[in-house]
From TrEMBL:
Enzyme superclass (EC): isomerase
Name of the protein described by the UniProt record: ATP-dependent DNA helicase RecG
Catalytic activity field: ATP + H2O = ADP + phosphate + H(+); Couples ATP hydrolysis with the unwinding of duplex DNA by translocating in the 3'-5' direction
Presence of keyword Membrane: no
Family: Belongs to the helicase family. RecG subfamily.
Region listing for Disordered, in residue ranges: 82-102
Species: Thermus antranikianii
Amino acid sequence: MEGVREGELRERLLRPILRELKDGARDQVVVGGLENLIQNLAKPFPRLQSLFQGYGGKTPEERKEILLEAIRFLKDGLTAPPPRAQAASLPSPSRRLTPQDPAHLLVPPQSRKKLAELSLHTVRDLLHYYPRRYEDRRTLPGVRFLEDGQKATLSVKVLSKELVKTPKKGMQLVQVRAQDAWGFRITLVWFNQTWVLSQIQEGETLIVTGRVQKRNGVQLYVEHFENEGTESLSTGRIVPIYPAKEGIGQAFLRRTVHRALETALPLPDPLEPYREEHRLLPYSEALRQIHFPEDEEALKKALLRLKFDEYVLLELKALLDAGGLVLGRSFKVEETWTETFKKTLPFPLTRAQERVMAEIAQDMQSPRQMARLLQGDVGSGKTVVAAYALYLAALNGAQGALMAPTEILAKQHYQNLTRYLFPLGVRVELLLGSMTPKEREGAIERLLSGEAQVAVGTHALIQEGVGFKDLGLAVVDEEHRFGVLQRRALLKLAKVPPDVLVMSATPIPRSLALTLYGDLEVSILDEMPPGRKPVKTKVLPHRLRLQAYAFAREEVRKGHQVFVVAPAIEESEELDLKAATALYEELKGLLPEVRMALLHGRMPAREKDSVMEAFRKGEFDLLVSTTVVEVGVDIPRASLIIVENAERFGLAQLHQLRGRVGRGGLEGYAILIAGEASQKTLKRLKVLEESGDGFYIAEMDLKLRGPGELRGTRQSGYPELKLGDLSQDTEVIEQARALAKRILEMDPDLSLPQHQALKEELRAQAERIGFREVI
Ligand code: ADP
Ligand code: MG
């Protein structure tokens, strides 16, 4: 009995310790510190308690030692037979291991460090340590068939080796005499790599890749070689090439991964119940094939299968993080309401608006909580769509709230919503931090009584004292500016989970939207209201930049206004400010007659708002700013935007920036100054000269720069995918997401027996897949 409980305790203690090791020994996985936990829980193990003394004060290196020691201690207790049982059964390498077991059980003690260096801590880590690429070594050519100058990979046996000095340049050559399976001779040559000599034994077989030279016999100038070793993992097949570090050989990795596969497989398939319908390779088979593929076809299927898993896990995690699929309220929607709404608008809706409105109406009718992201370029007409949703809520006797990131945007929304909704008998209230207590109390009063149906505001909406009679719909504008907590606070003002509509003006590719906002349905307004002309865009090399300001002078002379965006310097607002100030001073000298102001990220929000307000009123002509300017603000007389060091921005972000001009019927211009004018940079920026479609631009950005570099969206929110490729996988992601939803609908907390393997993977991979919470 005692033994059982002790075993359980060991396992319980192992979990946080393994997690801590994986986390880089930062002592952040346990609230209150790991030492605390050990002192409290590990009473039966004084050895462990003393090991962890002062843990919090140690360096990560020291901590890792402690952790490894602790893991060894705890594991030994688990695998060693209980005292009275047969003492002979030592853990042998052929013992079956689970994915949670430490990876070092698979290698000799002197190789443990190598695994740690590659962060391969558990058997599962090894199983998912996917090859970086593959080499087809199914048929290696014989020496006889080699041609001069050809690049080739061969399998040869070492006959002799020597170090040779070239007479002329004094180079050191390693020369190895070798022969192929048919007895044909070849000389392998390494230049100035004397260390190779010690790595090669006479009589062993090498796999060598290099350039063929036919002169005085056949020679190969070796670029890459491997000691084949005893197993045939490195030849006669499609061979995996793993990401590695210096001193860690491919043969070692192949051997170790192979052992992991042998001892851990077969594993239960996390998607067993859904395998057939999605035509997925069985899980264990996919793992085997991705490491040691039989042929290209099998490799392709394995990739697809494991990629699918990756996305399903990602979507599950996003949904679960967001609290799962929540039951909300079910609104009634009548056709005549929609007709009435349309009739009171001063313009016909775009097809995209109609489509998105239908999607929203459907969500609102469903008993499940609406969680929808509405994406659309600046000016695509998102506010009208939001007004429609708010109108539907109002007709159901519920209230709505729209939260905007700044006062100026809140005011703009207030004006627009009032314009759309007042004729329909819906009363809109504005709530701002800058209001007098009396104004504020009046507004709150009307919201509490239900006399007003809609509240528009900044985070003043979620401050003490604000309440609703019955909040049924929350709309959040420019979502990425709000913290998760603020959004939650808004939702808390409702008695039943309200429907949620998030609006974002940052166009991002659908694949990215589906993964970044895994818990949100995505609607896209991909059509501009008629009459809005695209902003004429020109990329200018740095040496011609003064032309941009000559043009600015012309525009100002016509009574138009100009934005100038100073180069953003990553990670430092202070440097940003410096650069913006320098530019501001320069422009004052250059354009003395132009009235200017400066706006930067360091200013308090209120000051920013008042600068923008003054600009809107035309109190000055040119605004120099860092990228902090609110994208949604309407400056009707702004016709030109100049962006310095445009190459530092993502295309999507630049597109969003240029959306600020030409909004009031004026012709809009954007001049992008390329500080660094490589062909690649210019080509990228020229996408903006040619296209006005935010989504196309975002796709191109993703293709040209890769997701890690996309800016203007949420930098740190990118899922770390091992196999997935967001620039290609939209379809796979859609399927994975649909499946994730179905699974949670059936089994909200993954407690059904058929989902246990999935749950286990989710738990294990949650730490691996970086993902930021939304809503
Ligand atoms: P967004 O919030 O997407 O930036 P808005 O909803 O503020 O866009 O709309 C931008 C402008 O276009 C507003 O002045 C709005 O009245 C107008 N607008 C919206 N939809 C249409 C439409 N279908 N036809 C004409 N004008 C429209
Ligand atoms: Mg807007």
